[in-house]
């Protein structure tokens, strides 16, 4: 698909301050990610995320991110935060991800894949996660947490997915233009690339990131 036919969606993830959420909304970001994975430095409690949810502008999606959380934890977040989308980064299977009655994105680690895993990757993903609304390709290995700021070889993104995909892993203002041109993703996801410290967003980096995405969308082929 030509990039002139659609705009790239933007998700800012790992928000921990209401002011950052408000600025992201004002900048026109499409989605705000709140992290509930236990081992993340950006982890929130549901009550904290609920307060920041109230700082979001209309027409911005709230995304709740989990990594092998217990079902009761997921349900507590859904009740308090009211996300419109769930994102899973652990060993969760399709039945688990679908059981909460909300659309979900499945995070896929892209570091350390052997040739056997790369071959037929799109088919494998469809078989394992038929209910996924989209896939998110991230720059970490199986069993590791995301949000580390590492990139991966974009040429390893499987073709023929038949579903939208989001590009993550080391996204930042300095490389997102090239990333969009190289991969034509449905959306891009950034956390550490717009931070001064884990969970603490940098306003200038946030603005620059959005500007670079829009520049890529408007750039001629």
TrEMBL record:
Entry keyword set: Amino-acid biosynthesis, Aromatic amino acid biosynthesis, Isomerase, Tryptophan biosynthesis
One function term, GO molecular function aspect: isomerase activity
Ranges where the N-(5'phosphoribosyl) anthranilate isomerase (PRAI) domain occurs: 11-211
Cited CDD domains: PRAI
Highest taxon listed in the record's lineage: Bacteria
Reactions catalysed, as given in the entry: N-(5-phospho-beta-D-ribosyl)anthranilate = 1-(2-carboxyphenylamino)-1-deoxy-D-ribulose 5-phosphate
TM helices/strands, residue ranges: none
Pathway assigned in UniProt: Amino-acid biosynthesis; L-tryptophan biosynthesis; L-tryptophan from chorismate: step 3/5
Enzyme Commission number(s) of this protein: 5.3.1.24
One Pfam family matching this protein: PRAI
Statement: the UniProt record of this protein carries the keyword Mitochondrion: no
Keyword Repressor tagged: no
Family per similarity comment: Belongs to the TrpF family.
Name of the protein: N-(5'-phosphoribosyl)anthranilate isomerase
High-level lineage: Bacteria, Pseudomonadati, Pseudomonadota, Gammaproteobacteria, Lysobacterales
């Amino acid at each position: 698909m030509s990039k002139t036919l659609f705009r790239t969606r933007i998700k800012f993830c790992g928000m921990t301050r209401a002011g950052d959420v408000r600025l992201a909304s004002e900048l026109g970001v499409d989605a705000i990610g709140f992290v509930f994975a236990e081992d993340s430095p950006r982890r929130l409690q549901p009550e904290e995320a609920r307060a920041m949810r109230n700082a979001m502008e209309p027409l911005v999606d709230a995304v709740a991110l989990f990594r092998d959380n217990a079902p009761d934890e997921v349900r507590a977040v859904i009740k308090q935060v009211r996300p419109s989308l769930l994102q899973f980064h652990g060993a969760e299977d399709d039945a688990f991800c679908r059981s909460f009655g909300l659309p979900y994105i499945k995070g896929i680690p892209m570091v350390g894949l052997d040739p056997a895993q790369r071959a037929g990757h799109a088919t494998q993903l469809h078989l394992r996660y038929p209910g996924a609304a989209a896939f998110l390709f991230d720059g970490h290995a199986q069993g590791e947490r995301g949000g580390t700021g590492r990139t991966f070889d974009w040429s390893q993104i499987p073709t023929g997915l038949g579903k939208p995909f989001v590009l993550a892993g080391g996204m930042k203002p300095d490389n997102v233009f090239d990333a969009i041109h190289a991969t034509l993703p449905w959306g891009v996801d950034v956390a550490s690339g717009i931070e001064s410290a884990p969970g603490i967003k940098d306003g200038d980096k946030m603005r620059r990131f959005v500007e670079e995405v829009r520049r890529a969308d408007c750039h001629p082929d």
